[in-house]
Amino acid sequence: MSAWIHSDPNADDGYWRDHGMRECARADRCAAPRTETANGRTVYLPALTPRAFCLADHAAIARALDALPALYVRVHQAIDKTFAVAGVGPVVAMSKTAPVPVSLPADELARHILAVLTSWEERVRVVARLAPLSTGASRRRRDGVILTQAWTVLAAHLDALLALPAEPMARTVSLRDAAALPPGTPGLVHHAAGYADVLLTLSGADAGLEILALAARCRSFLTDTPASRRHMSGVPCGACGYTELYEVLDGDGQHAGASCDACRAGYDADAYKALTIDQVTPIRASGARRRALRSASRDDVLSRRA
Ligand SMILES: [Zn+2]
Ligand SMILES: [Zn+2]
């Protein structure tokens, strides 16, 4: 993301100084939890912050929002590909294999992303004093244009978005999610179609959580997580000794440790960190020191060859 127009998280404009601190809205999934000792046991509590989210989770939301346009394009491609195979549109050469059904989950996910982002765009436009969307014009906009416009507004006003007060907003949810809502939630259940239109009271904190959930849902739909496994080269497995460790990511695509392809041993983030420290200790003990390379007179500086 390029711009923090109204969104510098470090800016101290004095506004927050007299306000109380509250717990980060990511609750038990807070990226920077504080620890407290109760009855001799360490408990993790959400970070205290003057805003909806702590700085670490604010950054995670910014990264998730940043990734959404590319994820949306890939989800959309999953619809188009199946459409082409199913014979919709100008398909020239038809394959003899059975047609693949239209990807309904991809279509549904793409619509969900658009619906969520445009609903927040509408609310941000009010507080940021931008021209409101005219419904007639927005209906004629193409999906890609809608997404780009909504994303541009949200990315430029991320702080305004995350600070929005609670207001009723329309959401389409599955019947299972609808059943989990607090009793008395207004809405309309479409039993045959298997979904419900509900009215939820949502604030900027919900916007942040929805953005994280959208990116996570896209990634799991695209099965991105196994594809982008990072080899932790140079770190031997503590159990078998092979350097076959691959990074493990959590639901948000953040580092959560490593697992060994040779012996299937698993390490969480702290255990993996301990492995890398084990790795450094014998090197330090041998007296080796990191040393900067000084250029000599005959070095080829341009191609960086000594
Ligand atoms: Zn947090
Ligand atoms: Zn191993």
Structure commentary:
By secondary structure, this protein is of the alpha+beta class. It has three domains: 52-163 and 203-221, no CATH class; 167-200, no CATH class; 229-285, no CATH class. The chain is built from nine helices and ten strands. A three-stranded antiparallel sheet has the order 5-7-6. It has a three-stranded antiparallel sheet with strand order 8-9-10. Strand 6 (187-190) and strand 7 form a beta hairpin. Helix 1 (55-85) runs antiparallel to helix 4 and helix 1 (55-85) packs across helix 7. 21% of the residues are buried. Residues 24, 26, 30-32, 46-47, 53-54, 56-57 line the site of one zinc ion.
What attributes does this structure have?
three-stranded antiparallel sheet; 10 strands; binds zinc ion; 306 residues; alpha+beta; globular; 3 domains
Q: TL;DR of this structure?
A:
This protein has 306 residues and is of the alpha+beta class. It has helices at residues 55-85, 104-127, 135-140, 143-156, 158-162, 175-179, 204-221, 224-227, 269-285, and strands at residues 22-23, 34-38, 41-45, 48-49, 167-174, 187-190, 195-202, 245-249, 255-260, 266-268.
Strand content: 15-25%
Q: Kindly give the count of domains.
A: 3
Instruction: Please tell me the overall pLDDT.
Output: 80
Strands in their spatial order, largest beta sheet:
5-7-6
Biggest pleated sheet: 3 strands, antiparallel
Number of strands: 10
Gross geometry? globular
Low-confidence stretches: 1-7, 13-18, 82-101, 224-228
Helix residue percentage: 40-55%
- Quaternary state, please? single chain
Tally of helical segments: 9
Bound molecules: zinc ion
